[in-house]
Write a sequence for this structure.
């Protein structure tokens, strides 16, 4: 059984005129690293909310079809029941931070799920170490920079020990180096069997780690496959997906009859491929 | 036009954010401010419109010390779009949100309507004008916040992380709009982590670390300077990285030849 399964799932927010998701059919297997991308307003965030039950449990509206997460139907299980399975990091981390310091913030989720005190303490220490939060331990989340808040929100989500980490643009407030560090961490979690679902516009940063990319447009999934395959489709540019510069250059060279060994996703990969051609 | 002279600032007098920043911004410039989280970028731009006042040093607008102006007076000249749109949006329709600023700056109703419609159109928000900003997606809300300031066409436009949540098409539209305004003589300043957006659209870059400016110059040279990249937690633009790798390879090749 897939970890997450969308079956003909459609959703319309209360008061909205159009469907946010239209007949989504999607299976996500354990251990996958899935990147969801697509134009602004295409339904990416709604899809994330549908995995941990915020849609339809918190955000109400018209619904048809089903989402089954680890055997649980999100229509029938509340967010508290789904939270230990599917941990969601919001787009604006500030909107999910609720306590007065970082330690309490990380402890908040497991405490609410009734996790034993010593275990909560152990998780807090582990995550402070893992996300390099020691110097922020006593700090109020609203006194931190956007990037720091993002790291705290990730720690607070991981404290629930979810089976799948869903992150909605988790690096949007981070400087490029901190973004790399967070994404390396996510890739590492994925190597240690954590299923990852990541929403991202900056594909130059994430596509190298992903096992699969899904392209959404107007509430539908319009492409689904291996990153190199999806990102070299013309459809990407047509609907406004930010294709990495190295991939764009590959396509331009290909159109002029200059074929590189494979589709590059990073600047360094492109350099290696050009070197290979030179040596031939 | 704007001159910062040795500006120092500490939040609550305790948390030092700026340690002597000097910067000159001229009419018609397009400048990107880049640097690590907590480097002081946002603190710096909040000094431009008087939201923050220097503890030490001066901010000078057209030769006059900005301390003589209120935030409301500075807002006529310098428009600031904040990082989190939710800190800025408060009305119940997109249109009202955009008209609010125009109204406050005393634009006649007709002119305000025209400007509002044009700005919404330019930012791909034309279909959403009667929607409540709070029912929109994160990227759309960001554009509403941008629209509310862009519509007033201030002489200096200052945008904190304008590309967050924006897809490639929206980013291109935004860039085009900024270039158009710039060509009308407006100065445009962005704070951003989006290096590709910087290299494509901003001729001048200012790199910050630890409350100081560590580099200021043509974007190409700032973003290919290894020391700056390291110090400011930046990464090279992809094609700069490619060029660097190829240069390293050919140097190694040359060394082996000898």
């Amino acid at each position: 059984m897939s970890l997450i399964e969308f079956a003909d799932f459609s959703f319309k927010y209360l008061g909205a005129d159009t469907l946010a998701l239209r007949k989504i059919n999607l299976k996500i297997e354990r251990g996958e690293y899935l990147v969801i991308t697509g134009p602004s307003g295409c339904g990416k965030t709604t899809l994330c909310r549908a995995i941990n039950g915020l849609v339809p449990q918190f955000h109400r509206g018209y619904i048809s079809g089903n989402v089954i997460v680890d055997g649980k139907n999100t229509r029938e299980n509340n967010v508290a029941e789904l939270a230990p399975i599917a941990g969601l990091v919001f787009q604006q981390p500030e909107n999910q931070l609720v306590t007065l310091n970082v330690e309490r913030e990380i402890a908040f989720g497991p405490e609410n799920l009734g996790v034993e005190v010593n275990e909560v303490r152990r998780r807090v220490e582990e995550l402070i170490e893992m996300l390099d939060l020691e110097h922020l331990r006593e700090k109020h989340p609203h006194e931190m920079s956007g990037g720091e808040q993002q790291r705290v929100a990730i720690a607070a989500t991981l404290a629930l020990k979810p089976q799948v980490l869903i992150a909605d643009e988790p690096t949007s407030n981070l400087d490029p180096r901190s973004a790399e560090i967070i994404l390396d961490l996510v890739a590492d979690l994925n190597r240690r069997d954590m299923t990852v679902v990541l929403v991202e516009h900056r594909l130059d940063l994430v596509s190298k780690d992903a096992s699969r990319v899904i392209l959404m447009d107007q509430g539908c999934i319009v492409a689904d496959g291996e990153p190199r395959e999806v990102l070299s489709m013309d459809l990407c540019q047509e609907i406004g997906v930010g294709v990495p510069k190295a991939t764009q250059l590959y396509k331009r060279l290909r159109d002029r009859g200059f074929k590189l060994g494979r589709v590059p996703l990073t600047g360094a990969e492109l350099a290696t491929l050009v070197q290979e051609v030179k040596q031939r | 036009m704007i001159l910062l002279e040795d500006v120092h600032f500490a939040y609550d007098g305790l948390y030092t954010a700026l340690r002597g920043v000097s910067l000159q911004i001229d009419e018609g410039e397009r400048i990107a401010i880049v640097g690590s989280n907590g480097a002081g970028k946002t603190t710096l731009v909040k000094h431009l419109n008087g939201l923050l006042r220097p503890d030490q040093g001066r901010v000078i607008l057209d030769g006059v010390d900005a301390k003589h102006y209120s935030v409301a007076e500075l807002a006529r000249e310098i428009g600031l779009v904040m990082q989190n749109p939710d800190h800025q949006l408060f009305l119940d329709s997109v249109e009202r949100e955009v008209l609010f600023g125009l109204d406050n700056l005393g634009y006649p109703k007709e002119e305000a309507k025209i400007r509002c419609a044009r700005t919404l159109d330019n930012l791909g928000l034309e279909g959403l004008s009667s929607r409540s900003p709070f029912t929109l997606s994160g990227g759309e809300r960001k554009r509403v916040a941008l629209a509310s300031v862009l519509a007033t066409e201030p002489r200096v436009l200052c945008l904190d992380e304008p590309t967050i949540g924006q897809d490639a098409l929206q980013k291109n539209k935004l860039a085009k709009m900024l270039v158009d305004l710039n060509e009308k003589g407006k100065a445009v300043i962005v704070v951003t982590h989006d290096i590709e957006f910087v290299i494509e659209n901003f001729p001048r870059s200012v790199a910050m670390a630890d409350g100081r400016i560590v580099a200021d110059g043509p974007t190409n040279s700032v973003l290919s300077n290894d020391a700056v990249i390291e110090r400011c937690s930046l990464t090279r633009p992809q094609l700069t990285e490619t060029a660097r790798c190829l240069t390293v390879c050919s140097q190694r090749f040359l060394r082996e030849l000898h």
Remarks:
- Chain A is about 40% helix and 20% strand.
- Residues 176-191 of chain A form the longest helix (16 residues).
